């Protein structure tokens, strides 16, 4: 990565073979104990990664107590079981249980975030998270409800005007899609803004000026590039395969009869469409690669943007003294993701430790702190 003056690049020295011994023991003991060992597994794993991650010449540390984690997890499980049972008896509605879980989900996420931050240290100074439950509710529940409402609204509008070929119908569809699109960007940007501005190191806060417009532009570019490919694969790939495997009426809803080319549909069905093995596996693989590509691209762009906006304030007089950079590239992350996926598939999951090591090593070597690290000791 291109280093700036006073740039301190992070580095990771963990090894796949070394971590495999920890990982396989964690998996076996978690299975044997029916999940009871999972808190110890998490602590062992995090300590390995933190202890092998260095900034300047010092590593990070993880101090969590697995016994306390187990008590918290069991308490949540007992609460959910009791709430669902009581609801099924007195309210006679099994949806109450999931609704209760959704209601307490922000509290669980906030507790986990605070705990992980407080159990992490660098140079004997602890991190912390000061985000409020009210703020997380507004983002995770409030914005999510708006987003899902806009999705439902788009589906309703699209179905309602699907027979209308007028310009007004096109405009209504476009407006509904724009609202749905904007609400998703609003939700994602809200999550990043909430978490990026909630962390502290010692008594100094992290700040990040996250702009919703940036996310709108990002997802617009993604839609512009991937939409034609997606619909081409849908109409000329998955729908013919669905006809072959499931039959005409079972696979196609009325909506597809309205939009799918009639002559092409009939030729597939009545002329005996018989895909060969290569065709059967090609379309799912292409869809998978497209999904990996979209995920890799958005991960690179968002991470690089958020880190470029992130600052650690040292003093109000001098302004931000520490800045951060992320130099991920789409080509490198895409190659790494495909390699890690293939590694885990062909090793039947046993290659996961190496995949995790590869990912952490790549992320750390493309992350840097800009500033005088010697000031770190004065932040507590």
Q: How would you portray this structure in words?
A:
- This protein is α+β, with helices and mostly antiparallel strands.
- The protein folds into two domains: 16-129, no CATH class; 198-379, no CATH class.
- The chain has helices at residues 16-32, 38-51, 66-91, 96-118, 133-160, 167-196, 212-246, 248-251, 254-259, 262-270, 277-309, 330-346, 352-365, and strands spanning 7-9, 11-12, 53-55, 58-62, 120-122, 125-129, 199-201, 204-208, 310-315, 319-326, 367-370.
- The protein has an eleven-stranded antiparallel β-sheet with strand order 1-11-10-9-8-7-6-5-4-3-2.
- The protein starts with 6 loop residues before the first strand and ends in a 10-residue tail after the last strand.
Summarize the structure.
With 380 residues, the protein is an alpha+beta fold. The protein is 67% helix and 12% strand. It has an eleven-stranded antiparallel β-sheet with strand order 1-11-10-9-8-7-6-5-4-3-2.
Mean pLDDT across every amino acid position: 83
Strand content: 5-15%
- Count of discrete structural domains: 2
Q: By helix and strand content, what is the structural category? A: alpha+beta
Radius of gyration: 25 Å
Shape: globular
Overall strand count? 11
Number of helices: 13
Listing every helix as H and every strand as E from the N terminus to the C terminus, the arrangement reads EEHHEEHHEEHHEEHHHHHEEHHE
Oligomer: single chain
| Proportion of residues in helical segments | 55-70%
Give the biggest beta sheet: 11 strands, antiparallel
Beginning-to-end CA distance, first to last residue: 30 Å
